[in-house]
Amino acid sequence: MKRVLTVGIIAVALLGGGAAAVAAMSSDDYEVGVILDSATNVVPGGTVQVNGFEVGRVSDISVEGGKAKLMLALEGDHVPLHDGAKVRIEWKAALGERMVNINDGPEGNAVIPDGGMIEGHMPVPMEFDQVLNALDPPTRARLSSLINRLDSTVKGNEDDLNRTVRSAGPAVQALGEVLRGLGSDGPAIKQMVTQLDAMVSTLAGREADLRTVIDQLSKTTSLTAQQHAALAAALAKMPGTLQTAGQTLGGVPDAVRKAVPLLKDLEPATAKLPNVSQNLRPLLTDLRPLVAELRPTLTYAQTLLNYTPGLLDTAHATAPGLNSAVSSLTPALSFLRPFTPEAAGLLSNWGSASANYDANGHYSRIYVQAGASSLNINPGIVPPGFTSNPTPLPGSPVNQPWTDAFGSGIR
Predict the structure, then answer these.
(1) Which residues, 6+ apart, have CB-to-CB distance to 336 below 8 Å?
(2) Which of 37, 248, 249, 295 is the most buried (most CB within 10 A)?
(3) Whole-angstrom distance, CA of residue 151 vs CA of residue 163
(4) In a domain, 92, yes or no
(5) Residue 118 domain boundaries
């Protein structure tokens, strides 16, 4: 039991000491140092970044062993640093001040204590003399000639050049601010470019789908443009339509008020409808066989209707000629109309005379005999006791003279 308590106390002490160390390293006093070959354009108070985030300042610059020693005061969520961290001096802008950029080591590595040293890297600055020494003699001669010509051109115009430089100062300063901002936001720009590259890669992989969407959008836009005129015409007619609908709806209350008394008057008849439906049920039951028998008739009627269009077409072609024939028969029918009784009596007498039968057949037989003796050679002399009326009125032979509706005789 005592052994367990002892181990627990030791563990608590170790955890407390570790937490205190971490707290001390996470405090505002956390500082690390770095040795560089050169610290050109690095100034006290300069910016310090960890993994692209600004976390501190350069607290001190000193010389140690012919090299520059920088002390970096850090704070925030990115401290303390871990073993494997590296320091690199980078341009903060295209011209002027530089900044310190730290790439932290893996989180699983040991923690660098407060005041510890980390590995640094400083690019060797390029001096103007080194640039000139890199040029060959002909190039240096041309450069010297160019500088002499520039001197002769500027000579006597120093005031104008100074005024030009002074007026260009704000523009150069603004350009410096832009370049400084680009240098400070380098990690953010890198992340944006990376995301843009991923987006472009995704779009390239979906090129066919994107082309289909664009084609469909183009067709939709074309159809919308084609329907623009029809839509405009429909919208132009809409006010009149709405006005007509308003008038119609305005008349609905009056129609409803008039319909209410009618519905009340129909209530007695509506109450009798259930009894009527009950009485109709046996009738409908009896009609079922009749409906079944009508099915063949309807089938034949369908066949007849199939021929009806042709018949109507034929009748349409025949009707004009039939109309002309009836029109030409109208005078003859007008002449024969007064003699309708005689014609009906003649047909009736002939029918009754020829309807009786004997052993040889009908009583009446008609023989047509034609010859010289059948000609009428009467010179027109009427024998005594006879009268002649060549134009008798209809019905005169039976002592029933008849005239038409106009009171006239034969015309």
Answers:
(1) 343
(2) 37
(3) 17
(4) yes
(5) 29-125
Torsion of CA 357, 362, 364, 366, to 10 degrees: 180
Strand 47-50, strand 357-358: pairing? unpaired
**Proportion of the chain above pLDDT 70, given as a percent:** 70
Q: What is the rounded CA–CA span in Å between residue 269 and residue 259?
A: 16
Report the 10 Å Cβ neighbour count for 31.
18
144-171 average pLDDT score: 75
* pLDDT value of residue 369: 59
Q: Using only C-alpha atoms, what is the Rg of the chain?
A: 64
Residue 75 has what DSSP assignment? -
Pair of tokens at residue 83: 């073993």
Structurally, the chain folds into a number of domains equal to 2
Say whether pLDDT at 281 is over 70: yes
Name which of 17, 182, 187, 24 is nearest 116 in CA terms. 24
pLDDT value of position 12: 38
Which of 77, 102, 125 is the last residue in one of the domains? 125
- Per-residue tokens: 293: 């028998």
Q: What one-letter code names the amino acid at 397?
A: P
Answer with the residue of higher pLDDT: 227 or 133: 227
Where is 31: in which H helix or E strand? strand 31-36
Instruction: Tell me what percent of the chain is helix, strand and coil, each rounded to the nearest 5.
Output: 60, 15, 25
337 and 406 in contact (C-beta within 8 Å)?
Answer: no
Domain boundary among 226, 257, 277: 226
